[in-house]
Amino acid sequence: MGAARDKLVDGLYGLGWAGVKKLPEPAAVALGRKIADVAWKRRGKSVLRLESNLARVVPDATPERLRELSHAGMRSYMRYWMESFRLPAMDPGRFGSDVEMKDEHILREALASGRGVVVALPHLANWDLAGAWAIGHIGVPFTTVAERLKPESLYDRFVAYRESLGMEVLPHSGGAAFGTLARRLRAGGLVCLVADRDLSASGIEVEFFGATARMPAGPALLAQQTGAVLLPATLYYGDSPKMYGRIHPEVAVPQSGTRIERTAAMTQAVADAFASGIAEHPEDWHMLQRLWLDDLTDQGESP
Question: Cα dihedral sign for 124, 129, 135, 139?
């Protein structure tokens, strides 16, 4: 049963990559909205979890407002997928016009310093499009990490897709990824990591919208170990095809404290930057899973 399901999932994603890529852009936009509307009306687990997460972000929202936000959130989420299916076929010249990044100069200056740069992003808007912008507009390739997906063939599709955009993709599992990232940074390279959810034992506890969540230690540890510049970044959607974002100021390594204390302080600063962007555009935060520790323990899950 599991093998059959994996084959079906992989086949559906394969159809998405093959079919949506060929659609005219307005048709792809309309299809994404239609799929999102159907999914939202069904009120499945993912939609209810998104709504529960949004209630943390907008605590004074009425039930009606939360439903509006979750509806907009599902449309944003499906827009991400429609864009991602089409990205490999998109004219790279569009990245400079379709994406506008506030304080882009912070990233350019950090790269020019030769120290190496770690950009940490949450699941806001389209982080793959932001990566394509960095390659096509800034002119800098980068290295990232991808979580292994099931089936394995689906993971291979994701890796091939991201590599087709010019990214170097490392598997999340195993200990080799950190060493490779560190080498890229010491050579003055760029590393981009989606870093707003980590339920592993190595995750750092942070205060996030008034409750405790765990986020990856990797960005802070890489900055400490290699001397790289750590820059949070946040994104949000405008009317299709526009996407906007902001490069936040550097999260500096504290001058005092143990390694654990420095890592905790830096990760909290990254979480605070993420929270500012998510609070401004909650409908573009694609967090359809449990995140806060009390949500996990309420269900008897291990954080």
Answer: negative
d(CA 290, CA 293): 8
Report the pLDDT value the prediction gives residue 160, as an integer from 0 to 100: 78
Dist CA 85 CA 224 (whole Å): 36
**φ/ψ (deg, to 5) at 74:** -70, -35
The pair phi, psi for residue 147, each rounded to 5°, is -70, 135
Q: What percent of the chain has pLDDT over 90?
A: 69
Using the structure block, give the residue that is written with the tokens 């555009």: 281
Q: Is it the case that residue 43 has pLDDT exceeding 80?
A: yes
Burial class (CB in 10 A: 0-12, 13-18, 19+), 291: buried
3 pLDDT band, cuts 50/70/90, is: low
Can you give the pTM of this predicted structure? Answer: 0.91
Using omega within 30 degrees of 0 as the cis cutoff, is the peptide bond preceding 92 cis? no
Residues 40-60 as b/e (b if ≥16 CB within 10 A, e otherwise) read: beeeeebbebbbbbbbbbbee
Under 8 Å between Cβ of 171 and 177: yes
Query: Strand runs (DSSP E) across 92-248, as ranges?
Result: 99-102, 117-121, 142-146, 168-171, 190-194, 204-208, 211-215, 229-237, 243-247
Rounded distance between C-alpha atoms, residue 182 and residue 204, angstroms: 20
Q: Is 233 helix (H, G, I), strand (E, B) or coil?
A: strand
Select from 119, 153, 205 the least CA-distant residue to 7.
153
- Could you give the C-alpha distances from 76 to 49, 70, 196, 233, in angstroms and in order? 15, 9, 18, 18
